Amino acid sequence: MFGKLKQGGEYDVIVCGCGSAGFTAAVQAARAGANTAVVERYGMPGGIMTVGGNNDVAQFHAYHKQVIAGIGWEFIERLSALGYAPIPDMTVDAPHWKYGIRVNIPAAAYMMDTMLTEAGVALYYGQNAVEVTVSGEGESRRVDGIIISTKDGLVRLGAKTVIDCTGDGDICCWAGAQYELGETLQPGTIRFYPDKRLPDDETVAAIDSELKAAHSDGRLDNEYRFPSSLRDIIASEGCNRNHINDFNAADSDSMTAAEIDGRRAIFALMETLGENARIDNIAPTVAPRETRRILCDHYITCDEYVDAVEHEDDICYSFYPIDLHRAGRQSIKQVFLTHGLVPRIPYSALTVKGFENLLVAGRCASGDRLANSAYRVKASCMAMGQAAGAAAALAARGHGGDIRAVDIADIKRLTADNGAIVPGVNDIHLYE
Predict the structure, then answer these.
(1) 309 and 358 share a domain?
(2) How many domains, the chain?
(3) Quick one: the chain helix, strand, coil %, rounded to 5?
């Protein structure tokens, strides 16, 4: 079926995708003693944070108290100690977006490399997963291996447990898992890097006038949602300042069209800004906000998320408002959380229906699109990833890979021992 398929390594845990969720999953699994590998399609870890260029990491704190810690927070603290992740004052009242931690992108990728290699994770960078091998039937299927594309051709990696952290749920989809994917999806964003030097006031005023004119006469399509202020563009450093609309990142042809549209949008902005306000670079890809949501044993609804409903198998917290982006300049649908409520993520929202050894963590975890628009953010993905990594390691080393045979108390204990804040275990400070 696969032609000249070579056999690669055999692992306790394979994590596919090394973004925010995949990074913490792999580090946690390896620290728990599991022989762990990461398969990452890009040549660096970090996903949306690094390759996608959205380097704002939110949110670890709620109501001035920390609700997410563990490996993700260790990553932030190690960067901060080196001067590459300034941490805002979390004890002051401010709009929610001001609690994000903007990391330095090359330093963030370096630190992820460092923590992964320190833990002993086998790294398969730039080696895209292209297919899976599945055994069993019905509700007892297993993902036994991942087929990756390498410079030597196709290689199969064997696994006892697999964690899909691809963001788009690719591994689950190829294995035959159920998922949801709406006809209407949130727009994506392409990061751009403007020259940070601000021209004199007269030049700034002239550029702002040209931006407004370009929005009015169609040279700068309003659907791209670019700012009309040079100061805003420079202050934002081009992060999260546009919308690329009407595409599906889980479809290769649609994603290709989006990449072309994103570069077209940035070029139109460059032409509008002129020679006195350069754009020096862009991210190599459009960063999506929404694609597949994999169906797991539990399905997180918007109501239970905003009401912070408790579950017997809660393994981490999440904190961010409902944040559904809409095409062009339509307003973002936001639902802010009632003061004092902190949403929870149950383990059963990560255990993929119909599979004995397949977990999912991060943006493609199980829930409706409104809940997903909140728990998709990086700190929450890091918390889910760490919990999934702990569960996968325990399943592989003690239960033949069976993710449902693992005692929830053991997952909680292991993640708490590795610094995570775990509901019902070490979260007493939230209720003081």
Answers:
(1) yes
(2) 2
(3) 35, 20, 45
Residue 309 is assigned to a structural domain of this protein: yes
325: in domain: no
In a domain, 110, yes or no: yes
Both structure tokens of 10: 């055999």
Separation CA 172–CA 64 (nearest Å):
37
CATH number at residue 87: 3.50.50.60
Contact 179, 34 (CB under 8 A): no
What is the C-alpha to C-alpha distance for residues 217 and 146, in angstroms, rounded to an integer? 51
Residues 383 and 270 in one domain: no
Beta bridge partners of 322: 335
Is residue 144 within 8 Å of 161, Cβ to Cβ? Answer: no
CB count within 10 Å of CB 331 equals 8
Q: Does 206 lie in the same domain as 145?
A: no
| Residue that has been written with the tokens 């070490």 in this structure | 426
What are the two backbone dihedrals, phi and then psi, of residue 368, each rounded to the nearest 5 degrees? -80, 170
Residues 334 and 275 in one domain: no
* Residue-level pLDDT, tens digit, the chain, 432 residues: 455 777 889 999 999 999 999 999 999 999 999 999 999 999 999 999 999 999 999 999 999 999 999 999 999 999 999 999 999 999 888 888 789 999 999 999 999 999 999 999 999 999 999 999 999 998 899 999 999 999 999 999 999 999 999 999 999 999 999 999 999 999 999 999 999 999 999 999 999 999 999 999 999 998 999 999 999 999 999 999 999 999 999 999 999 999 999 999 999 999 999 999 999 999 999 999 999 999 999 999 999 999 999 999 999 999 999 999 998 878 899 999 999 999 999 999 999 999 999 999 999 999 999 999 999 999 999 999 999 999 999 999 999 999 999 999 999 999 999 999 999 999 888 876
Pair 375, 425 in one domain: yes
Please check whether residues 204 and 351 belong to one and the same domain.
no
Query: Is position 1 within any domain?
Result: no
Same domain, yes or no, for 344 and 269? no
Q: Provide the residue range defining the domain that includes 96.
A: 6-182+292-320+330-431
Q: How far apart are CA 54 and CA 167, in angstroms?
A: 15
Can you list the pairs that 264-272 forms with residues at least 24 positions away whose Cβ atoms lie under 8 Å? 265/190, 265/221, 265/224, 265/226, 266/190, 266/192, 268/214, 268/219, 268/220, 268/221, 268/224, 269/192, 269/220, 269/224, 269/226, 271/219, 272/210, 272/211, 272/214, 272/219, 272/220
> pTM for the full model?
0.96
